[in-house]
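Sequence design from tokenized structure. All designs in this work follow the same two-part layout: the structure record, then the generated sequence. An example of the structure record is given first.
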């Protein structure tokens, strides 16, 4: 059984809580420590079981809270060497204690198995994670410029997915953003559009998939209803009408989702 709650998602800070009955981790810590704790409280999550923070990549919207969460709250930090190098370019971040993992090599945190895998994004060594325990799998991938065969392979047979659905192509191109920024976002190391997210999700979805959380939505170049509709249509076209699609928010936590049996799930708390 795994519980999952996206505490925050977007360019202002990303943080996702994943927990078995025994062990909890955060994927990324892009909120301040105070805000992270406040949102866990709001979601009814007790932080005492937190055993680690898994960092996908060094961008500030994924790392802003690591220093205080590690020092003041004693939570262990996990990242690969490239990401640690990237974080340590900031002199104030050089004294943190890290647990290094190798991209592609699964590791354990108590009863959670963590599988980090490469994703294309404009930083040192970005990864996504699959976290599993006792047959329940959750995939978390944000900040990817395009999908790859490896990403699709890793995300198959998951019960829940947190996937970037960053922008609507038309809204991005019609926005006031500079051309170079538009090209960076659309590029192969930028961010995933609604259309590409929908294709990825419907490609990897299987009978066991219950919940999809669309993540890292651009506030300027996306609209939650458009993002949901895009993935909904793509899933329905493949007969995957059983999958619930949710949008995550920058300003508040998602529902807490919990795997109840091998084929069903229940939301606990509606935030
Ligand atoms: Zn990001
Ligand atoms: Zn990023």
């Amino acid at each position: 059984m795994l519980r999952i709650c996206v505490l925050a998602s977007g360019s202002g800070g990303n943080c996702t809580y994943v927990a078995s009955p025994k062990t909890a981790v955060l994927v990324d810590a892009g909120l301040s420590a105070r805000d992270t704790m406040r949102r866990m409280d709001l979601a009814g999550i007790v932080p005492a079981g937190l055993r680690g923070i898994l960092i996908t990549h060094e961008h500030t919207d994924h790392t802003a809270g690591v220093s205080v969460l590690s020092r003041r709250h004693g939570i262990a930090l996990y990242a690969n060497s490239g990401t640690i190098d990237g974080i340590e370019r900031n002199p104030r971040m050089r004294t943190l204690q890290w647990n290094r993992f190798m991209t592609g090599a699964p590791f354990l945190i108590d009863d959670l198995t963590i599988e980090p895998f490469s994703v294309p994004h404009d930083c040192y060594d970005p990864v996504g994670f699959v976290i599993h325990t006792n047959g329940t799998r959750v995939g978390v991938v944000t900040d990817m410029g395009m999908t790859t065969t490896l990403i699709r392979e890793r995300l198959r047979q998951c019960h829940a997915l947190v996937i970037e659905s960053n922008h609507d192509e038309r809204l991005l191109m019609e926005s006031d953003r500079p051309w170079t920024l538009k090209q960076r976002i659309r590029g192969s190391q930028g961010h995933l559009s609604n259309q590409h997210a929908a294709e990825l999700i419907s490609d990897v979805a299987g009978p066991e998939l219950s919940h999809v959380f669309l993540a890292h939505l651009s506030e300027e170049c996306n609209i939650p209803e458009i993002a949901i509709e895009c993935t909904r249509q793509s899933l329905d076209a493949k007969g995957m009408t059983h999958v619930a699609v949710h949008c995550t928010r920058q300003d508040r936590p998602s529902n807490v989702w919990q795997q109840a049996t091998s084929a069903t799930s229940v939301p606990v708390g509606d935030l």
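The first strand starts at residue 3 and ends at 8. We note this feature because it recurs in several other targets discussed in the main text.
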